[in-house]
């Protein structure tokens, strides 16, 4: 039986988060998720704060949902972001991506390249990262909207990385039926079981309740891009009318 995980989620432990771990847990349980794959920003974290954060995640975990602690690392240019889970000590802020990935691999952690379309991060990709990355985020709700990234599929194909989907949840606006489906082989949901599934690549991206591979991702993105373009156009019109109604500030 598949266990669904909400991936790439931020809480108030991140400098820009707006939800508590408790409220996030209740929200995602109600939406059928069994795992929360947290990814707090490295900014403002320390080794001590990470230890406290791990305790907080353990405290809020329950029979209904497991909260997996994780960190989202960014480079000094705030361009390349990487999601990290596992027994990795806090590595610091603004690290060069290769140095950070080497440290994650040495600590037996798992790394996923986040939102490669944001700030054209895909253009910074280096072949030396390939064997240190488990996956690539092919669909990020916050930055890609209602359609997958147009650049990520090529990275997945060339690197052999696992396709990941993430909400990049900061507010309710990032709600969307994206999930990572885990095959835990009947093991109780725990950090060990989740990390073991990552190690064996027993996880698959889902959108709208449908699992997809590279071929489906490439074909389906064309249809979904139409919906995303429509959404962005409608949002632009709404904001324009709202500004006109409110009038000039000041």
What would CATH call the architecture? Alpha-Beta Barrel
- Per CATH, the class reads Alpha Beta
Instruction: Kindly report the CATH topology.
Output: TIM Barrel
**What portion of residues belong to β-strands?**
15-25%
Compute the number of helices. Answer: 7
Distance between the termini: 57 Å
Mean of residue pLDDT values: 90
Shape: globular
Count all strands and give the number: 12
Strands across the major sheet, in which order?
4-2-1-10-11-12
Rg from Cα: 18 Å
Helical fraction equals 25-40%
Structural class designation: alpha/beta
Characterization of the model:
Strand 1, helix 1 and strand 2 form a beta-alpha-beta unit. With 250 residues, the chain is an alpha/beta fold. The chain has seven helices and twelve strands. It has one domain (2-246): Alpha-Beta Barrel (TIM Barrel). A six-stranded mixed β-sheet has the order 4-2-1-10-11-12, sandwiched between helices. The protein has a six-stranded mixed β-sheet with strand order 3-5-6-7-8-9. 35% of the residues lie in helices and 22% in strands. The protein starts with a strand and ends with a helix.
């Amino acid at each position: 039986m598949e266990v669904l995980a909400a991936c790439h989620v931020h809480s108030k432990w991140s400098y820009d988060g707006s939800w508590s771990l408790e409220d996030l847990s209740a929200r995602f349980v109600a939406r059928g998720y069994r795992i929360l794959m947290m990814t707090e920003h490295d900014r403002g974290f320390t080794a001590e704060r990470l230890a406290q954060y791990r305790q907080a995640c353990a405290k809020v975990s329950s029979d209904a949902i497991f909260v997996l602690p994780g960190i989202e690392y960014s480079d000094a240019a705030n361009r390349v972001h990487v999601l990290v889970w596992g027994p990795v000590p806090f590595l610091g802020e603004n690290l060069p991506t290769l140095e950070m990935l080497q440290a994650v691999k040495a600590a037996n952690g798992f790394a996923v390249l986040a939102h490669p379309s944001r700030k054209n991060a895909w253009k910074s990709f280096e072949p030396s990262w390939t064997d240190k990355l488990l996956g690539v985020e092919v669909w990020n709700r916050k930055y890609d909207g209602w359609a997958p990234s147009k650049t990520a599929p090529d990275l997945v194909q060339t690197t052999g990385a696992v396709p990941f989907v993430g909400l990049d949840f900061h507010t309710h606006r990032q709600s969307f039926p994206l999930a990572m489906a885990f095959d835990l082989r009947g093991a109780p949901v725990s950090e060990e079981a989740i990390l073991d599934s990552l190690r064996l690549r027993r996880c698959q991206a889902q959108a709208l309740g449908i699992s997809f591979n590279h071929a489906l991702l490439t074909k389906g993105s064309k249809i979904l891009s139409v919906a995303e373009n429509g959404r962005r156009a409608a949002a632009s019109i709404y904001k324009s009318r709202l500004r006109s109604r409110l009038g000039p500030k000041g």
